[in-house]
Automatic annotation (TrEMBL):
Name recorded for this polypeptide: Winged helix DNA-binding domain-containing protein
Organism encoding this protein: Nocardia farcinica
């Protein structure tokens, strides 16, 4: 990978030649997970399931990597996206140690809060804080969204009793947020000129909540499948999302 880009299968052949006593698939997986790599452009295009071409990051950056990137600056970038958050949240997101020292070093660039459990939460000093009495808008998140994965304590977004919705990632479902909490899952089924967005609530919704979810789902379908006939279906709690 140091000298060329390629498909995963090609790297498997290289791994088999270089390490004949090892599982080539495991070797390639180690390369892709442990080395700084990327999928070369064009990538991330809608409805493009072509195989990714992998490359080392450096040729695309045009500069050497900075292994000593300051943890303090990484904390600032994290908090801009996910604050307020604890040092445990930061470690869960990054898998890196040293966050207590980093937030201490940031000094008055941060402000602190204490949550209901007595834990210290950090945020940027200039970051706006949402009004707790203001309802959060309905959102349909993508599968495996970082909003669900970037905190050690997921109770802020996954309420008690919604564990099944979180486990649904195994079946490639995506979460529905109502008032900022996971309240259901959905999946889009495009087939035969029709796009069906099927939603399974995790609890009973009010009439207003159902209307808001339906409107957000219709907007998402118009974006995802503009050429297909849209259909939004809100099913019963615990129903099978598959048509």
């Amino acid at each position: 990978m140091e000298s060329h880009s390629g498909f995963r299968s090609g790297f498997g052949e290289c791994a088999a030649q270089r390490y004949p006593d090892r599982d080539p698939g495991a070797v390639v997986q180690t390369w892709l997970y442990q080395l700084p790599v990327l999928q070369t452009p064009p990538r991330g295009r809608w409805k493009d399931n072509s195989r990714p071409v992998w490359s080392r990051v450096q040729p695309w950056l045009g500069a050497a990597l900075e292994p000593g990137y300051p943890l303090t600056e990484l904390a600032v970038r994290y908090l801009r996206a996910f604050g307020p958050a604890s040092t445990g949240d930061m470690q869960t997101w990054s898998k890196l140690p040293g966050w207590r020292a980093a937030v201490t070093a940031l000094g008055d660039r941060l402000r602190t809060y204490t949550d209901e459990r007595g834990r210290t939460l950090y945020d940027l000093a200039d970051a706006p804080l949402a009004d707790p009495d203001r309802p959060a808008p309905v959102r349909l998140l993508g599968w495996y969204d970082n909003a669900l994965l970037s905190h050690q304590d997921r109770a802020r977004i996954v309420p008690e009793g919604a564990a099944a919705a979180l486990r649904s990632y195994a079946t490639m479902l995506s979460p529905v947020l109502v008032d900022g909490f996971v309240a259901g899952v959905y999946k889009v089924f495009p087939r035969a000129g029709r796009a069906r967005l099927r939603i399974v609530p995790a609890r009973a919704w009010t009439v207003a909540e159902r209307e808001q979810v339906a409107a957000e789902a219709a907007a998402l379908l118009a974006f995802l499948e503009p050429e297909l006939t849209p259909s939004v279906e809100i099913l019963d709690v615990g129903a099978d999302v598959r048509p």
